[in-house]
Amino acid sequence: MRVRRRPSILDPQGKAVEHALSNLGLTSISGVRVGKLIEFDVEASDVDAAIAVAREACEKLLSNPVMEDFEIEIEERQVPT
Predict the structure, then answer these.
(1) pLDDT tens by residue, 7-61
(2) What does the alpha-carbon distance between residue 47 and residue 60 come to, in Å, rounded to a whole number?
(3) Predicted model pTM
(4) Are 11 and 34 within 8 A, CB to CB?
(5) What burial letters (b/e) apply to 31-46, b meaning 16+ CB within 10 Å?
(6) By C-alpha distance, which of 32, 50, 33 is closest to 41?
(7) 31: left (phi > 0), else alpha (psi -120 to 50), else beta?
(8) What is the side-by-side strand order in the sheet with 2-5?
């Protein structure tokens, strides 16, 4: 899952990274935004159930709904037998 600040919210960490890149001579880079990548496994009966669990985790703990948006990406894995 990816968590990012909403576009309307100031991203001080992104600005600091952008400034550092500029100091390194990389002046063509702008609009830097910093987010989080959170990976975890979910045991579920199907993809919809896994998404529901991941969404609940995001809404209750892993993101700040006032300032951040999140995206859930599901990668299906086969369970070894």
Answers:
(1) 999 999 999 999 999 999 999 999 999 999 999 999 999 999 999 999 999 999 9
(2) 20
(3) 0.79
(4) yes
(5) ebeebeeeeeeeeeee
(6) 50
(7) left
(8) 36-37, 2-5, 68-71
Domain assignments of the chain as residue spans, ordered by start = 2-71
The residue with tokens 């880079």 is: 29
CATH number for the region 2-71 comes to: 3.30.1280.10
Give the N- to C-terminal CA distance of the chain in Å, as an integer. Answer: 27
Q: For residue 68, which amino acid is it?
A: E
Pull the structure tokens for residue 24: 């390194």
